[in-house]
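Budget justification note: compute hours in this period were largely spent on complex prediction jobs such as the one shown. Inputs:
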Amino acid sequence: MDLDALRFPLGLITNGVLIGMMYSLIALGFVLVYKATDAINFAQGEFVMLAALMAGAVIVLAKLPFWVAVIVAVAGMIAFSFGLERVVLRPLLGRPIVAVIMATIGLAAILRGAGPFIVGVETRSFSLPVGEDRIVWGPLKLQPVMLTGAGVAIVALAVFTWFFLKSRAGIAMRAVADNQQVASAMGINVERYFALAWAMAGIVAALGGIVWGSMLGVDVHVALVGLKVFPVVILGGLDSVVGAVVGGLIVGIVENLAAGYLDPYVGGGTKDFAPYVLMIIALMVRPYGIFGKRKIERV
Amino acid sequence: MFHRESGYFKTTYGADMALYPLPIAQWSVAVLAVLFLLLPLVTTELFGARNAEYYVTNVNFILIAIVGALGLNILVGYTGQISIGHAAFMSVGAYTAANLAKFGLPFWVTLPAGGLMAAAIGVVVGIPSLRIKGLYLAIATLAAQLIIEWIINHVPAISGGSQASIEVPRPTVFGFTLSAQRELYYFLLFFAVASIVLTLNLVRSRIGRAFIAIRDQDIAAEIIGINIFRYKLTAFAISSFYAGVTGVLYTYYYGVANYENFQITTSIDYLAMIIIGGQGSVLGSIFGATFVSLLPTAIREFMQYFGTMQIFGMQLFTEAELNNVIPAMRLTVFGLLIIIFLVLEPEGLNRLWRNIRSYFRVWPFSY
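Corresponding output:
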């Protein structure tokens, strides 16, 4: 078969896989919080933006080495999400779902308004210490930034899968997610696990912020990545770590193929459009996602 | 509204459902009506024509926002179906009206047409609400917002070219063209009042009570014989109709239909209105629309006064910086207000108002 004819779709798919892994890294933060606390984080993109702003400030403004930025971003995001859980989300426990959604939308507005207000509006760029040259592998050209991002995503996903399946804290967290009252009766400190879940979401957001920030440049627009979270988690299933990976891959591949083949005909923008069309179809056919748990409601 | 009852004397359901519980309520509404009718004249007398135009501009934004906030409150506050796509329905109404206005049709044709078109699209978007709710519905309406925005932007037949904006002529009533703010005021006031009266009557009718039953527990509502399919779609249709009319009003008010006025931030503004004002309350929608519409003006005035002050010989912000700071500040204050109200006063300004009223009911002889 002619290799040249395959080069274009292969390139699109490879990029889709890499981008998809990076989406699943961000979706993972959403899934972790939803799984453990039933709370919905509409500010996931803004979390990533905040982490990227922190890393950007450390590297560009303070001119400190890269690893300091990683530590600052992770520590900062853990502190931020702890505080958030304490001040905003704990009072909203047991309130209608609309309240939590609106609270996180409000939070997103605060971060989007205050973030650049504090650290400045201009775009800052920093790069991962992996080099800029494209790696040529057979017919494919791969960007090192995206490869690293996908690598970070795979490691994070593996760690969290292990955490939920094997570790004591992970099993306790699954118990909390399943039934808060029963878990509490069995001696699990429910509130501590809520805080832990938010802290883990903070760590994931920090990693995502560094990876995405180095790829896109750091300013408010990093938060737009958050819009991709919803198709990913709906496709994969809201409470499934594996679902985040599969959803991320599907969204990444679909949006790249759509952009590659449809953009010339409709004048651009299919990248942001296609995942949502896919998501609407998924909502009609299988709203709880590929790996999600079906909830049965009783009066 | 401002009176104090001396007790509860209702003995029939009819009395309990009445819009005016006492004759004095009728009087206070009549007084309010006269005040609102005289507002442009009074402000012109007091502040001169130029300042009056400025003040009435602010009121005009409130009047438009009231229509939209009432529509969203019917869906979110009364029926319990969350929607993050309210602004998309506005854009549907706006572009429908603007495209019809190109054929020289007057506003009393384009306005209902815009509303009906938005209602039709709203029903389509509402169909998933039969299977999904809560978070899933929020995300589905978010998708609707993004998809509608994309379609308007990418189909020149709708958006009228690359700028995606269509100009409309000023509305004409009985051969009289409304162009000044004080003239548009009466135009907008009419629709705001009409939507308030409509909503007040809707929520105490069979339909409104079915909405409330669905909000409180939809499975239970289905069991007592409410057709969930029909009423959820009705809620979406009515809410989107209001949104469409809001979009048309914005279009005639600005003189141009432009998708930039109907992006996701606008949807969030309207959600903020009903949360700050009070969900499931007509008065709350009015409070919320007023509060949220005045907030940007208040922040701008505040920052232009205090932001350029000299502190220790240093100017806080230059004029150029202010242009960046004010939108950022508006967003931040917005988010803060949403969270503060959700955490501290979930029932919004409407509840605060009722608290004040019930405090004064027995004042000064409280026990």
